[in-house]
Amino acid sequence: MLQALGLGSAEEAVYTALLPRSSASAQELVRQTGLERAEIARVLLDLAARGLVAVVSEAGGEVSAPAGQGADGGPAARYRLTPPSVALAPLLVEQRNALQRAENAFSVLTEQYRSTAAHPAGSVVEVVVGVEQVAHRFHQLELGAQRELLVFLVGSPMAVPREDTDMAESSALDRGVEFRVVATKDYLDGHEVAADMRAAITAGLELRLVDDLPLKMVVSDRERAMVPLEMAGPCGEPSAIVVHRSGLLTALVHLFEKEWDRARPLYPTASGVRAQTAAEQWPTEGELEVLSLLLAGISDRRAASQLGVSIRTVERRTRRLMDLAGADSRLQLGWHAARAGWL
């Protein structure tokens, strides 16, 4: 937890050991953390230099460390944490500033790359050749997503093993990325794949099924996409194109939304997943939650806040409700919901 603020694992161990205690000696910290005495002494010196801990007297007041001993005040010395709200705030500000500088540098370098004459087509399409390079770019797209991932799954993996894909999915879902997948029905062949998909859906992934798809694809934040090429590279290795913001990327996003609308939702079962049949065209629990709030006159933004989801999720659920109802307006949706007994 504290490593994100620049502390090492040993520093975090000592810090968290002091957290529930009013004070502790170095020997007590050795017993509680399992670290060597010399390591504890080094960590205490480091934490004291950062203002995160202080040497205290038996009466509880802060004291200066004995001359020549720094923060390690000897066997009798005791240590306590400086209030985190005071001590950790500068570290947080430093990390935020570093992140801002990194984002600024990223924007500048990206713009320079797009505008340089050395890469006239690089701002639109890149060709990536080789298993390692294709896998590397795939992970860059999925791990770099901050808002949304759109994926077409077709056939068996060629460059990225399925277990690596599962890890990237889990990382994205843990970050709160909206993750939508359209898969062909043959992709779910096999018990292990179905079980993995069931776990992913339970974790928040939205999955739909179609009979066929024109290509494999992953779109990250609607800013870049990756499409494998059917033809092999010069050495017979897999290859792919990476598409950046352009009319081509917009077309790929439209293609995904079109396939998403015609696909059948999949739901988890005890052994895997199953597709919704035509007779089961009924709103999901999440869609009914959105519907009840909309009928109460609550805006999309407030509904998203109350449900703890994104506005895009509320809009997508509303769009599916209208599709199920065959409604052209939300007024017609309310009329159909009352007549069909959805609420």
Explain briefly what this protein structure is.
The chain is of the alpha+beta class. The protein has 13 helices and 12 strands.
Describe the structure.
- By secondary structure, the chain is of the alpha+beta class.
- It contains 13 helices and 12 strands.
- It has helices spanning 9-18, 26-33, 37-49, 84-87, 89-115, 131-144, 162-174, 191-203, 247-262, 285-295, 300-307, 311-325, 330-340, and strands spanning 24-25, 53-56, 78-81, 125-129, 148-153, 178-184, 206-210, 217-220, 224-229, 239-244, 264-268, 273-275.
- The strands form 2 sheets. The protein has a 9-stranded mixed β-sheet, sandwiched between helices. It has a 3-stranded antiparallel β-sheet with strand order 1-3-2.
- Helix 1 packs across helix 3, helix 2 packs across helix 3 and helix 10 (285-295) crosses helix 11.
- The longest helix is centred in the first third of the chain and has 27 residues, at 89-115.
N-to-C CA distance: 43 Å
State the share of residues found in helices, binned by percent.
40-55%
Q: How many β-strands, per DSSP?
A: 12
Q: What is the chain-wise order of helices and strands?
A: HEHHEEHHEHEHEHEEEEHEEHHHH
Please describe the biggest sheet, giving its number of strands, its sense, and whether it closes into a barrel.
Answer: 9 strands, mixed
Radius of gyration (CA) equals 27 Å
Q: Number of helix segments?
A: 13
Supply the helix-strand structural class: alpha+beta
Based on Cα principal axes, name the global outline: globular
